[in-house]
Structure formats: C-alpha cells, structure tokens
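Checklist before submission:
- one chain only
- standard amino acids only
- sequence pasted in full

Submission:
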Amino acid sequence: MKLTGPFSQIITMQGLPPKGALADDLLHCIPNGGVLWENGVIVSVGDFNELRRSYPQAEADEINRAAVLLPGFIDCHTHICFGGTRNNDYALRVAGSSYLDIARSGGGIWSSVMQTRAASREELTEALLHRIARHASEGVTTIEIKSGYGLNPDQELKMLRAIQAAGARTPVTLVPTCLAAHTKPRDFEGSNSAYLHYLQEALLPAVKLEGLARRVDIFIEETAFSAAEAIPYLQACQKMGFDITIHADQFTASGSEVAVQTGAVSADHLEASGDREIQLLAASSTVAVALPGASMGLGMQYAPARRLLDAGACLAISTDWNPGSAPMGDLLLQAAVLGAAEKLTTTETLAAITVRAAAALRLEDRGVLAAGMRAQMQAYPTADYRDILYYQGKMKPYRVWA
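Returned file contents:
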C-alpha cells in the first residue's frame, strides 16, 4: 500500500452530474491532499495528514513541491494505428482544396489505407507504441484506438492485432474499436451495403473470436455510408454483442440521429449538428464527443459544445488523432482551445476529458479520483488547478501514474 502526497490540490472530479452544464462551484478540490492506493486501485483520497495517521504502515511516496493532482486523461476517439503520413493532404487543404475533394481525387482515407496495408504488423505496433508514449507523457492514461485503414478482413485484423500487441507492452489502457466501415474500399467490387454485409460475415466473427475489440464504429457521410446503409449494419453488430459508436455529423447531419435511434454509446464529430440534432442527443443516453483537433486540422467550425451542454447532453472531448484531418494529437491543448472558443467552464472542460470521456467508452473505473477507482493519475507543477487550462496546453504534467 502506498500513500502519495501531499498535493497542493487534488481535483477529484467526484459528484458531477453525468449530463448537462457544469458550474465551477461543482468542482471537488481537496487541499493538502493525499491518495492511498494499492495494486493500481485507489483505497482512499483525502487530507494527507489524516491519511498518514490512519495508515502508518503505508509506504510513503512524498511530493515535495507545489503540485495539482488530476485523474489521468481519457482520449476516447483516436486513429493512431496507421502507416505513413498525409502531409500532402494538408498542403492541398491549406491551398484551398476541401477534405471531400481530396478524398475523391485519391487522397484522404484511401491514401492512409495504402500506406497502412504496406506496413507489417510489427511496424504498426512500434509506431503505435511511440504515439502512445507521447500521449502518456502528456497525461493520457486511457486511449481508444480505431482500425479502419485496412478495409479488408486480413488488413483490419492486422491492425487490431497490432493494437493488441501494443497493449501488452504499455501500462496505458488501450480500448480497440473496429472501424472497418470507415469507407468502402476502392478494390471492393460491390455496393456499400454489400461491403457492410461482407464485414459481418468475413471479419466481425474473427474479431469476436479473438477478443480483438468489443466496439464497432461506422462513418456516416457522403464519402462513406448513408444512414440507411448504416442502420442494419449497426443492428447486426449489436446482435453480435458489440457496443457501437458513430462518426456523425462531420460535414452533413444525419449520423447523430442514427446514433440516438440505435442506442450508440457515442456520436463523434458533430461539427454539422444543428438544433434538431442537439436536442436529440440531449434527450438520449448517447455521449456527444467533440473533436476539436479535426476542426483545427481542417480549418472548419467546432462542434457546438456550449449548445450541447446547455441542452442537457453529456459532452466529451477527444483528439481524433489521425494522419489526415487531425495530426496534432494534443488532448489538453485542444480541450483548452475548444473551451475558450465555446465558453466552457473549467469544470466542463476537465470533465469532458476525464469522467465524461470515460462514459463514452463505458468505463466506470476511471476518470474520477475516489476509492475503488483505477489509480490513473497525473500531477501538474502548480499550486492552482486553474493554471492547467490557463496555459492552453503548454503546462504539461511532470509525473503520470498509469
């Protein structure tokens, strides 16, 4: 058993309502705090001196500087298993080409597919571990990682096995998601619906058998799949026992309605969501996931985070870290910038990358510093938690526990 502290402040993220707007007076702060933990699980959180008196046998892990402790961040939407780069796409975009135009001309997702197919499983694993290590150094202790750059059974399984292999070599928690329905591959002869049926028959049973993912995703958009094509696929995935999530409303609205209709765990992107979509999400149990990194990479509007919260939705924030539209992958920076643009409170922003991001992955054992939760934690070199967002991502944790 170990007692870590004292911290100038511990921001526990305890006691927050799961949905809707969050005032800053709801944020639970413990001054001169300590965390008692054992075997990676928190035993108690409270005043450091009281914990030391109550547990004299605990091994001391002393903090001898000003420090603020937060739960580890949770990045609930990434594509960080990939080969190659798409720097040419970025150059075309900043020169005036649209994301959809680039995709239609041979760039976009298909470019990443060809480069990922050319990489071995071992090469994908090593590149993935490098990105995970960077994320972990910035306080991210749980990462969702999608496939979706293989787009045939063998290549999708290669990606998911690379994620599994990386997970065995890092203390960071990896949550794999099968995104074989990213777009219909150009080398598949048949309709979109035929491709989705092919995935149900030739890929998903193997994913299930090997335990490679418990989640399935689909991209609903003009260059990918329509709502009508997506619904039967998602329902079939649910019958197989998968959780479902949806790339929704990135350029055109319709995906979030499908997410609500099918009971998806989350609807991610939402840059094109309007009043109707916002009200649907707010009235549902589907988590709304904003991806400011994609907005920054594409030079487009942010998801309507303020309106989603005010309507009563559960809002998470994630990076969408990928080689095309969101290559930055800095969760804290992106959350701070979105918070400033959308006028989110400090509590709303921090909840969106901790406890509410955990809800987007159906993980009930993290995102909060409390007894029985995972001891995934990070400490910042300041005595005032408000500095963390104030510096908009330039202040990084000096120590991370995963």
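Reviewer check: The radius of gyration is 21 Å.
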